Amino acid sequence: MSSLHSHPVDLLRFNTCGSVDDGKSTLIGRLLYDSKSLMEDQIEALERSADITGGGQINLANLTDGLRAEREQGITIDVAYRYFATPHRKFIIADTPGHVQYTRNMVTGASSANLSIILIDARQGVIEQSRRHAIIASLLRIPHLVVAINKMDLVDWSEERFLEIKTQFEEFLPRLDIKDVKFIPVSALNGDNIVTASAHTPWYPGPTLLGHLETVHIASDSNLSNFRFPVQWVNRPNNPTDQTLHDFRGLSGQIAGGIVKIGQKVTVLPSGFSSTVKQIWTLDGPLEEAFSPQSVTLVLDHDLDISRGDVIVDAEDLPGASSDLHAKICWMNPRPLTTGKQYLLKHTTQTVKAAVTAIEHKINISTLEKENGITELAMNDIGEIRLKTAKPLIYDGYATNRLTGSFILIESGTNATVAAGMLLPPTEIARPEYRDFAI
Fold first, then answer.
1. Rounded CA gap, 269 and 435, in Å?
2. Which residues contact 6 (CB under 8 A, 6 or more apart)?
């Protein structure tokens, strides 16, 4: 196997969040600039703007504040994605807004992240927004959190202030479901402890921010115990001139969980047909085994009736199956969510009709308390709802698998995404009437 296939986890997705003016854009700019991840023309443009504004100080925030209107207002509005790489790892950054009213953008940017960086201004300390961001990271089950205490140069690199903020933040951590939290004192503007260790923090023994991002252990973040393979398309090249492809029928998609091996007994849901994995193909050739999140084509021993939206799973380990769903959602539409309206629900590789049958409660994002008696969810609200789908969904709880446990709701008329959802653990397991082909 090539190293690419041995280490699909060498890509770290992370998001940055913080309040307005906490220095998120400067922090990302500094990471890109100091890790030498910029194109020459980007560096020249930065240096030109530094000469124009006078003082010769490069404004690193300009790298990420792509929208001119946003720069004029001085706030980050949408989610900006940036890509960079070092010899150790590849990175995708989602720069998410700090404003309270942009919770939905943070949910979008953080939904696939392995790690979340929360910026705290050393002068302000932990504010409500810091707690709100940590709570969203916890709800989205982001496994790793970095609390970057920024602008340390403005508090004279005080270890006492750093420890005070760390204690403030740790006070509410027990209420959250985040196992790995790292605190790093930084100055994004001057580059201290971003890529290179700072001489101003002899009292801080830990890694720089980039050092931590390069080494944080993410291999066990994916669910490698429950094999899940939503079929994206049925691959039938049917090339009469090439006998190897003449009868080829592969099932292509991305492994959403677990490991698959040649010879493994699998079940196709919802039909319940069973078969054995005969071949595993990738663009680079055949494999003996593959694992999440690789994209592969599976060939089964039997020519079964399988189509897009079906899910292939380990025969001994079945997911849930139900058309009555219980989920947490973040509502993203200016028009509030009320019960009864029909939507399209997109889950893995299939889209089904769905209606919201009940709003159970709203989650107070500042206290994590449940507010009952709610009749609607406004934009950016997070709540728990009940849904009814036109046909059963094959799924896991979001806590078990972030890919098979998440969905989006789409408004049929406008095609707008109106909600992002996290499914609660299923009560019914998919127990199909088995049609076993093994003789």
1. 11
2. none
Q: Could you tell me which residue, 47 or 308, shows the higher pLDDT? A: 308
Rg, Å, the chain Cα set: 24
State the residue for tokens 């994916």. 222
The rounded mean pLDDT for the chain is 82
Q: For residue 390, give the H/E element and its range.
A: strand 382-395
Closest CA to 420 of 365, 380, 367: 380
pTM of the model: 0.79
CATH number of 320-423: 2.40.30.10
Residue range(s) occupied by CATH 2.40.30.10 in the chain: 228-314, 320-423
Q: Which phi and psi angles does 62 have, rounded to 5°?
A: -60, -20
> In this structure, are residues 90 and 11 in contact, taking their beta carbons and an 8 Å threshold?
yes
Predicted local distance difference test score (pLDDT) of residue 412 = 87
Q: What is the dihedral of CA 60, 65, 67, 70, to 10 degrees?
A: -110
The residues with which 150 forms a beta bridge, in sequence order, are 121
* CATH code of the domain made up of 3-215: 3.40.50.300
CATH class of the region 228-314: mainly beta
